[in-house]
Amino acid sequence: MKLNDKAHFGFGAKAFIGLLEARAADGNYALRNLSIDDPKRLTLRIGSSGSPADVSLSEEMAYLRAGDMLRLNPQTNDIRVLYRGSSRHNFLFLTERCNSRCLMCSQPPRSIDDSYLADDILRMIPWMAKDTRELGITGGEPTLLHDRLTALLGAVKEHLPSTALHMLSNGRLFSYLRYAERVAEAKPADFMVGVPLYADTASAHDFVVQASGAFEETLFGLLNLARVGVRVELRMVVHRHTYARLPQFAQFVARNLPFVDQVVIMGLELMGYARSNLDSLWIDPVEYQDELERCVHHLDQAGLNVFIYNHQLCLLRPSLRRFAKKSISDWKNIYLPECDGCTLKTECGGFFASATLRHSSHIHSIR
To answer: Does pTM surpass 0.90?
Structure first.
């Protein structure tokens, strides 16, 4: 499934957010321009029909439906899908800026002014389907938006009161209690922040995120989030620099952070810095099953909710499979030929599309 494409525009205009409305008998969609105060409608055509249209897309975008939202740029002929009404994997990408430089970051940060991203999303939220089950917030580091972030949380609270909202953040700015309080005041009812902690020691965590003092800031952030009543998901990404201390990580979390709502142990997505640092980071999951098993069972026995993301069931020991979840977004989820005929395929989360670059040599179907 493609989330971006080149489009043909029958007019000249600035970039804008478009909402697909009802499809006409001729196969064209009405496209509402949401970037102006008095939204007007354009005509959008998918495919090669001869009917006239203001915007034309390739057949590869035929999966689009009424209720989906796009960002269209007539000056560059670019189009990007921002929201799909029928999907459970909608993420609101707020910024490319970040105050960390994680070795395995799949979305390398850039120091640019991209405030238009948050402005676009604020225009979109009132038009999203009221029955949207869940939304994600990601970046970059969303907390760098300060007032724009709290405005966005408030917009979701107002327009999508039944929607679960999950935000990915390194948690460092929540070390300022007042900021954590402001987020708690603005948040919708069903809100959780996913914060990474990559080790039980400052030196190891700070090395992974390439930021001195990040471990202490993150811990203070986690404590402040708990203090103001914001639910927390703790995240650990397993690679060559983190796997060895998984058991000690579990002991540290169980002893010092027992208030977290869940702990997620994650596999690599081979994009961005993870791809450029692949030789340094890569380890076959079969090589760290001892450490993973000790980590997961310690957290489980301590009464914490623990899950395994981005791992294939055939690589996990049977005792770990019940903790594995299908976690990869539908638009970047694949299975390999080795998975054909596997009796657990429907339960297995499969791979990121980037796994074609490198994956375990032990992948096999379970029959």
So the answer is: yes
